[in-house]
């Protein structure tokens, strides 16, 4: 096997992965803020983290993956101003924050499951770690923080080289930082926000700095350090986190682990920081507030299998922008279907060993691609080539497909071609009705009764069903 090489946003280079603990990989992924449904762009971040985790397993590392659930502290503007997203949604809906958090956490988990994203070792929920957050803040407050009326602020000038992660791409971050009277530096951020006098919040806790709530950046520093130990191996998130959230986490980690002398990597809490690029719409970055709200459920309602979206993600490299379109989704679905049709023949055979000379080069190609900063587009072609290998024992082929799919997670050996039919939720015709009409049509054709056969075809068309005789992909029919 080749070395695993990963792009580290800290050094802006592809580097050999060298674990902190021999044979182990510890990964922290910034999780969703559960104030609303995730859009499919958000889910791209978790498909990426899942591919990373599966690749680490493929390479033989014992994986500990943590994904957090942010249920407090994330403001409407990452740059330290605005309202708490959770409080805002709860006020809008006149519901308890806890109910909101539960509802959207479950919705997120449903998407995770539908996309074959593996369960991490732990889903750490921010509000379960408030005491640890207060302890962390206490331990750095003396040297690195100052108190204002609105909260406890982190002074970014007290750590070396603040913001080095963000500077890779932007010099203009400061323009977005909200002004708070009394801040020492514009980039200083609240690690504890006090509840303003006379207000009560649904979520607030006592602290040495008064009643209030932790800052979002503090949460991730505390949960990652607590569950994985500093320094751990890899920290992931979407590319927007490279600008503010992760530089701020790094500053806190530096303060907590001790500044000076350790060098930038050890001091940053994690050795490698990785970021997926955005899923975009033609009009720009996908977001919950603009345009059609593209939830995974919307794709399903329009008749697409959710794994077609996973396929769409894998067709692009995680560091490239990916533009969403319905045509692109359909193309990904067709590609998935072709693979499922080839894998169908392997479903009922017993798994053999993958050591067959016909597959050596393909397994090497696959390993080199996935090991080269998670090159899923090429890894997919290796899997397709393996599926197309002729005159080989089916058990051996099956074991190769299983192995490759353990990384790509398309579920090729479980999916059936019927699962991939496009069937919009709005369709009023049931599949049983369609199958029944098709069976009658088949019988009519067998008896050369073309009048009946044509009439049934028209009947089906009236039901919105397009009959696809002789379709090489075997769709047979399609609901429009
Ligand atoms: N369009 C996108 N494409 C890929 N990843 C994204 C996109 N938008 C957000 N992310 C990532 O999704 C993850 C979850 O983000 P979070 O739940 O905080 O959503 P959010 O920032 O409120 O979403 P948004 O502002 O896009 O509506 C983060 O890692 C974030 O970087
Ligand atoms: Zn985070």
Automatic annotation (TrEMBL):
Ligand binding (Zn(2+)): 30, 220, 245, 249
Catalytically driven reaction(s): tRNA(Cys) + L-cysteine + ATP = L-cysteinyl-tRNA(Cys) + AMP + diphosphate
The organism's place on the tree of life at top rank: Bacteria
Protein name: Cysteine--tRNA ligase
Coiled coil ranges: 427-454
GO terms assigned for molecular function: ATP binding; cysteine-tRNA ligase activity; zinc ion binding
Cofactor(s) needed for function: Zn(2+)
Any one Pfam family match given in the protein's UniProt record, by short name: tRNA-synt_1e
Binding site for ATP: 288
Gene that specifies this protein: cysS
Motif, 'KMSKS' region: chain positions: 285-289
tRNA synthetases class I catalytic domain: residues covered: 17-332
Gene Ontology annotations for the cellular component aspect, listed alphabetically: cytosol
Species assigned in the record: Paraurantiacibacter namhicola
């Amino acid at each position: 096997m080749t070395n695993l090489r990963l792009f580290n946003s800290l050094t802006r280079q592809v580097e050999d992965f060298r674990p902190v603990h021999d044979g182990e990989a510890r990964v922290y992924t910034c999780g969703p803020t559960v104030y609303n449904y995730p859009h499919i762009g958000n889910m791209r971040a978790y498909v990426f983290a899942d591919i990373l985790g599966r690749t680490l397993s493929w390479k033989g590392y014992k994986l500990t993956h943590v994904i957090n659930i942010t249920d407090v502290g994330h403001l409407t503007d990452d740059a330290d101003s605005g309202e708490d997203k959770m409080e805002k949604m709860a006020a809008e809906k006149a519901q308890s924050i806890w109910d909101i958090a539960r509802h959207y956490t479950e919705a997120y988990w449903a998407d995770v499951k539908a996309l074959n994203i593996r369960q991490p070792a732990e889903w750490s929920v921010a509000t379960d770690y408030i005491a640890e957050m207060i302890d962390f803040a206490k331990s750095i407050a003396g040297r690195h923080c100052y108190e204002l009326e609105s909260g406890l602020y982190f002074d970014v000038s007290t750590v070396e080289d603040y913001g080095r992660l963000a500077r890779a791409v932007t010099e203009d971050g400061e323009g977005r930082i909200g002004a708070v009277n009394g801040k020492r530096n514009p980039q200083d951020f609240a690690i504890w926000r006090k509840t303003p006098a006379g207000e009560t919040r649904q979520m607030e806790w006592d602290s040495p700095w008064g009643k209030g709530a932790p800052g979002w950046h503090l949460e991730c520093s505390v949960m990652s350090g607590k569950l994985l130990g500093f320094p751990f191996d890899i920290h992931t998130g979407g590319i927007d986190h490279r600008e503010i959230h992760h530089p701020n986490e790094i500053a806190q980690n530096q303060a907590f682990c001790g500044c000076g002398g350790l060098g930038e990597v050890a001091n940053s809490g994690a050795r490698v920081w990785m970021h997926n690029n955005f899923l975009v719409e033609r009009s720009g970055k996908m977001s919950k507030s603009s345009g059609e709200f593209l939830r995974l459920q919307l794709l399903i309602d329009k008749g697409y299998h959710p794994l077609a979206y996973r396929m769409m993600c894998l067709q692009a490299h995680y560091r490239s922008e990916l533009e969403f379109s319905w045509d692109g989704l359909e193309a990904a679905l067709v590609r998935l279907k072709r693979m499922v049709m080839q894998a169908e023949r392997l479903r009922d055979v017993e798994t053999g060993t993958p050591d067959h000379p016909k597959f050596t080069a393909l397994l090497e190609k696959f390993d080199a691609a996935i090991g080269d900063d998670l090159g899923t587009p090429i890894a997919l072609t290796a899997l397709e080539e393996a599926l197309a290998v002729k005159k080989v024992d089916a058990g051996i082929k099956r074991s190769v497909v299983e192995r490759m799919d353990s990384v790509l997670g398309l579920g090729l050996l479980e999916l059936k071609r019927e699962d991939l039919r496009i069937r919009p939720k709005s369709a009023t015709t049931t599949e049983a009705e369609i199958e029944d009409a098709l069976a009658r049509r088949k019988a009519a054709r067998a008896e050369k009764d073309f009048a009946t056969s044509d009439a049934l075809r028209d009947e089906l068309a009236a039901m919105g069903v397009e009959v696809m005789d002789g379709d090489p992909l075997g769709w047979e029919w399609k609901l429009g």
